[in-house]
Amino acid sequence: MTENCFWIKVKEEKFESPDLFTKMALLFATKTTAGRVKKDLDEPDDSRAPQIKKKVKELRILDPKTAQNLSIFLGSFRLPYEEIRDIILEVDEERLSEALIQNLIKNLPEQKELTALAELKDEYEELCEPEQFGIVMSSVKLLRPRLNGIQFKLTFEEQVNNIRPDIMNVTFACEEVKKSENFMRLLELVLLVGNFMNSGSRNAQTFGFNISFLCKLRDTKSADQKTTLLHFLADMCEEKHSDILKFTDELTHVESASKVSAQILKASLDTMERQIQRLENDIKNFPKNDDDPDKFVQKMTGFSKNSREQFEKLSTMHKNMQKLYESLGSYFVFDPQVVSVEDFFGDLSNFRSLFLEAVKENNKKREMEEKIKRAKLAKEKAEREKQERQQKKKQLIDMNKEGDETGVMDSLMEALQSGAAFRDRRKRTPRNGEQNPPSPTSRWPFANKDNRRVVLERSRSRHNGNPSAV
Fold first, then answer.
1. Which residues are 228's β-sheet partners?
2. Using CA atoms, how far apart are residues 363 and 238, in angstroms rounded to an integer?
3. What is the DSSP string of 383-414?
4. How far, CA to CA in Å, does 128 sit from each of 103, 125, 210, 274?
5. pLDDT digit string (tens) for 82-135?
6. pTM exceeds cut of 0.70
């Protein structure tokens, strides 16, 4: 460029202004930039204001993971630290919740950490929130045993409601199996059928069988593969031993008992007993204090006695259940230690369902056979009626062929003798191409001279018979 060039002489800075640049940025810049510019316009410029950095409080005792878990817990419940402490001291059941106690037990620092935090209570304001909460809770005596006792109190009714129905279901199922005469008769029938089918083999004349064998009756099929041994037994019971069918109504608790694990049931009772024993020891060893808000011993003592009474009842029921199941083992010759409650009643429950299904399928099969039988009879009846109609029609045609001419002559002679052939004396309109009406002779080809003579004689006799007409 030369010195006379326009671009050398321009002074564009004279148009420069902040307002111009802002408007251009809003109109022509990308969305992100435009948004940033608009935000800068709306907000006052505090860039020159002095920046006050918040002092970050460092952890003194707790590890980062424990502190983070406590922070999450405190953020979830949003209660003042002192209020959480008072709820636990007073065992306030209106404000206590299972979730609160569970989270405290899960996230609470160890006792040695709480003891260390208690020594920093003079530096409370300088500590972070999780450690401040730890200092507040460190003032509660026997905190963790106390929390365990409160949690047991909150969950005790639920534990009882889970254990008692299982014990009762197994107890009722044992009594039903032992008392059901129809089920015993069914077992006798199965033993008879089994020995008959096994005749000639090494299993012939068996004295008994395992209850688990009942479910295998469905696996034995007939020679034509159309039915099973179970369906055969169900059909036999319906036809000749209908009372045996009632055994399904007598074993109403076997299905519920099949869902009970004796091992889990015993473990639940043992856990309950340990919790009660631990609570009793905590109450016994709890230090005496005159602190009015601390009502742990006062409230938990009554609960401890009540829980012990209920446990003793459940324990007695459980022992009775075990005795009944052992007696079933002796009755049906199986080892109760090997065959579990769940397996024994599971086999009975499955067989009961299979038997009911077989009865239902047999009824459906009979209904189908009856339906087919009725359709067959209806078809045969329709065929017979059709053949009868065809036979009658054939006979009528044959009769018409044999007596056709005779019938026509007889009708004609009867018409001539009665005079019906000459009663219509109306004049006929000549047909097209016909000059004169047809004569009586042409109309009646059989009206010959002899016939005309008969007509004249009859006409004359009518004149003679009426003298007044002469």
1. 221
2. 10
3. HHHHHHHHHHHHHHHHHHHHTHHHHHHHHHHH
4. 20, 8, 68, 38
5. 999 999 998 988 888 889 999 999 988 888 998 998 888 888 888 889 889 999
6. no
